[in-house]
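cron nightly-structures :: item 1 of 1
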Amino acid sequence: MRLIKKWLDKVTFRNVTRITTPPILLGIFLPLTGVVWVSVLSFVILLAAVVLQRLKWRCPNCGAWLGRHWGIPSYCSKCGEELDKW
C-alpha cells in the first residue's frame, strides 16, 4: 500500500493525462473481444484510470478540479493561477 501511495504522490497534474489515456482506451476497446474475463478486467482498468484522473487532475495552487480538457489548460478556472509555471 505504501508503494502505491508513494507512486501517487509522484503523479502530477501535468502527466496524469499521459498516464490515464491508454488505460481508458483499453477499457473502452477490450470488451469488443467478447471474452468475459477480458471485459471485466478492462472495466477495472477503466475504473482505476478514471479514479486516478479525478484524484490528480487538480490545480496545484487551490486544489480545484481542472475540468474536462484535453491537454493542460493555461489557467485554473477557479483561482486564476497560471498553470504553466507549475
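cron nightly-structures :: done
The mean pLDDT is 79.
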